[in-house]
Every structure is written in structure tokens, then in C-alpha cells.
Amino acid sequence: MTTHHDPRLDAYWMPFTANRQFKQAPRLVVRAEGMHYWTDDGRQILDGVAGLWCVNAGHGRPRIVQAIQQQAAEMDFAPPFQMGHPKAFALAEALTQLAPPGLNRVFFTNSGSEAVETALKMALAYHRVRGEGTRTRLIGRERGYHGVNFGGISVGGIVTNRKQFGAMVAGVDHLRHTHDPARNAFSAGQPEHGAELADDLERLVALHDASTIAAVIVEPIAGSTGVLVPPKGYLQRLRDICTQHGILLIFDEVITGFGRTGQPFAAQTFGVTPDMITAAKGITNGCVPMGAVFVQQAIHDTFMQGPDNAIEFFHGYTYSGHPLACAAGLATLETYADDQLLTRAGTLHDTLAQALHGLRELPHVQDIRHYGLVGGIELASRPGAVGQRAFDVFLDCYAQGVMVRTTGDTIALSPPLIISPEQIGQIVDTVATAIRRVA
Ligand SMILES: Cc1ncc(COP(=O)(O)O)c(C=O)c1O
After folding, report:
1. H-helix or E-strand spanning residue 129
2. Domain end: 338, 357, 390, which one?
3. Whose alpha carbon is nearest atom 8 of ligand 1?
4. Mutate which of 145, 148, 217, 405 to test ligand 1's pocket (most atoms within 8 Å of Cβ)?
5. 282: phi > 0 → left, psi -120 to 50 → alpha, else beta; which?
6. pLDDT at 439
7. Coil, strand or helix: which one is 9?
8. 204 CA from centroid of ligand 1 (Å)
9. Region of residue 306 (left: phi > 0; alpha: psi -120 to 50; beta: else)
10. Which regions of the chain are under pLDDT 70?
11. Ligand 1, atom 12: nearest CA belongs to which residue?
């Protein structure tokens, strides 16, 4: 292979990237608007992944841009500890209008990973505050992704994200994942089989005793391990078992939040209300980093005891509720409301489904999974080279002018919610061409 080495690219150690490969043939984007990016050499790229599952209203929305500009000029920063600024309260209030009933207290972070750490710490502290401090165990799920901090990788279930980092957080166990291609391949929306996998929680309760378990965290749709849609009845069963044993249920909605599944949150789409929701990404349309934890009021209120001058939860970030993020968040929610974007994925569900299922007969295609405006096309792996076939599809699509994402050998689609049916067609046609071309 010819390699050309540009020393200007050396200093930046890129995240979740094959650094050496990238720097030999960089893919640089320099501008974005609506459904498109533009590359440094002037090519237009259709965005099939909303940046990284975050730019739900499309790029460069004027209201959001103006809100950020104005806020930067008016007040750059406000200290969040023992001080406040009006937009943080306004955004929290506005967010609770979208959340499932009861989840009406909001804690701000700067990323999905931080939202996860915050939710896990809240769960531990909650049980302790109410006198059940033996509940220290956290339960995640195989193939789960909950960001990259220590709590998140501990409850997460992706071996590559865990194996380099030692013992991680102690006292964690995992449910089995719900991926079952033998029974569920090519499901239309939610798979029929697998509700009983939620009974794994009963098994863990029998093993550890409920009195040791603080919380269970799952993604309603697991995104990062290849778009795993919950089997019918699975989430409700998990909810019921948690309720029965006094275990908190946390939905990690970092990718499913803000309209990806046809409702503001997947909790509403699937009709199951957790005790906490972690969110990020679409909260500011990806424009300024921000995450949030939504909490049932009863959990919040449990902390509100002791003398008035006591700090109730010893946790927070310098940039919790940053003014720029709050301004962007408020303008983002207005944009979503004006364009009725948070239910649009529901109306496009069938369009995406039809387009995706048209790929079924292509070579290497092993499964197709989708819900709302999220899709996954799983390819057979090349022997001894997991992920490479899908990565070649990604490169081919990019050369054709469409940005997709891959995880393992699954091609993931999560376009901005403003996408047109024709653009759905363009993305899926491009993927089809690429799949036909790769070996
Ligand atoms: C379900 C889930 N949780 C947490 C995260 C981590 O978010 P961040 O990268 O903002 O830390 C992600 C990121 O993709 C995610 O998909």
C-alpha cells in the first residue's frame, strides 16, 4: 500500500479510530448544513448517521446557531455549584415536559458517559440514603454500551472496551444479550422471540439476593453493538422484575432519546417507564456537549432530607448545565417542536423498513434490524477479520457520497429526523451498491 504521511496529523490521538490507517487516507469534513456534510476537497456527503446519532434536527439549524452565539456574548460561563443561571432551570423544566410521567427531575452532565456514571452513583446513593445501603450491586447486559468511563464499561458488555482496563468497578453482573438471529433474523421492527431473556434478572436475584442489587441498566435499543431491538414484552418483563425486587431500572437513552424511535424517548415508544433515563447527544442537537439524567421525583425527594444547608448529592461537573449547552438545548427543543420532529421517525418507520428489507437477498447479508429511524444491516464476517467487510462498505459509501457507520460487521443507519423518503432511498441504494462491490 502506498502511504503518505502528513506530520500535521500526528499530534491528535483520535478516539475509537484506527489512527495509522486514518492518517494514511484522512477523511476530513469541514462544513455541514441540513442533511449534508462537505469534505475538505469539496465533496457533498449525505449524512446517514446524524453525525454520531446526535444531530437529530439536521445540521446548522439557524435558531440553535443564534442561541449559542447570543449566549456566548451574553454570559460565557456560570458556576454550577451553589450558584445557578436561568437557562439551566428553564431547560430542565422544558425537558420534563417531554419525559415519561414522573421523570420530572433532571441532573445535567456533559456527555452520555457522564450521564451513566451519574445515574449509577445516584442509584447507589439513593439506596443508602433510604437505609438500604447493602444494595451496591449494578447489573448491566452483555453487548451493552454505556460510554467509556469506569462505571459505564463495567456495566457495559463489549469485550474490546473492557479487556484493557483491569478490574473496573467491583460487584457488577450482566444479563444475557437479546441478539438471537436463529429465531429473530429479518424481524420487522420488534422481534417476536426473547421476552423470557428478561428472566435472567430473576436468576441473578436468586444468585446474589435482591438486597444486594441497586440497579439494572439497559439500552432500550442497543446501538453500539449493532442495533439490537428489544423483543416484544422484554422491557416490560424487566420492569416487572425490578419493581418486584425493589431494583431501580435505568434506561440508557443516549441514542434512543429525542425522537429516534418515534416518540421523544423509547420508554414512551415501548410503553415501559424506568426509574431513571440517561440522555445526551440529541439534547442539544449535537451542537454543544451535554448529557442529562432524568429521575423519578420520588427518588429525588428521598435525597431531600436533613438540614437545609446540607448538600444532598456530592456529585457534579464544572460544566453541568453550561450556559452554551442550555441555550443550545432550549433552541433545540423549540426546533424539534416547530418541525414536529420527535414523532417523525414513527411516520418514516415503514419507509425505512421497506428500503432495508430490500437488501435481504444481497450477498453477505445475514440480518436486518430496525425501528423508527434506526437501522442495522448485519453482514457475515470474513474469516479471521471481524468488522472488515462492513468497514469496506463504509469506505465505499463514503466514496459514493453517503456517510454510514459500522460496528463489528453491522452497518448502522441513524439519519437526522428531517430526512426525506428519497434520501432514505439514496442511503439504502448506496449501501446496496457497496455491499455488491465488496468481497
Ligand atoms: C447508549 C449509550 N450510552 C452512552 C454513550 C456515551 O455517550 P458519550 O459518547 O457522549 O459519552 C453512548 C454513545 O454512543 C451510547 O450509545
Report:
1. helix 112-129
2. 338
3. 112
4. 145
5. alpha
6. 86
7. helix
8. 26
9. left
10. 1-3
11. 147
Which ranges in 304-373 belong to alpha helices (H)?
323-338, 344-357
Based on the structure, what is the number of domains in the chain?
Answer: 2
Cα gap 110→212, rounded to integer Å: 30
Whether residue 280 is found in the same domain as residue 307: yes
pLDDT computed for residue 5 by the predictor: 84
Residue 112 and residue 87 in one domain = yes
Q: Are residues 363 and 293 in the same domain?
A: no
Task: Write down the H helix ranges in 136-269.
Answer: 150-155, 159-162, 181-184, 200-208, 234-245, 266-269
- The CATH number that applies at residue 331 is 3.40.640.10
Q: Judge if the beta carbon of residue 111 lies within 6 A of ligand 1.
A: yes
**Number of the ligand 1 atom closest to the C-alpha atom of 116:** 4
Considering the domain architecture, whether residues 122 and 208 belong to the same structural domain is answered as yes
pLDDT value, residue 393: 98
Q: Which residues contact 427 (CB under 8 A, 6 or more apart)?
A: 46, 48, 355, 402, 404, 413, 415
What is the predicted pLDDT for the residue at 2?
52
Domain termination residue (choose one: 287, 318, 338): 338
Q: Tell me the residue ranges of DSSP E strands in 272-416.
A: 276-279, 291-295, 365-371, 374-379, 402-403, 405-407, 410-413
The Cα 78–Cα 129 span in angstroms is 30
Q: Pick from 52, 8, 2, 4: which is nearest to 32 by CA?
A: 52
**How far, in Å, CA of 236 to CA of 9, rounded?**
48
Kindly state the cell numbers that stand for 15: 478516539
Point out the ligand 1 atom lying closest to the alpha carbon of residue 278. Answer: 3
- For residue 368, the domain's CATH number is 3.90.1150.10
CB atoms within 10 A of CB 340: 11
pTM: 0.98
Distance 52 CA to ligand 1 centre (A): 10
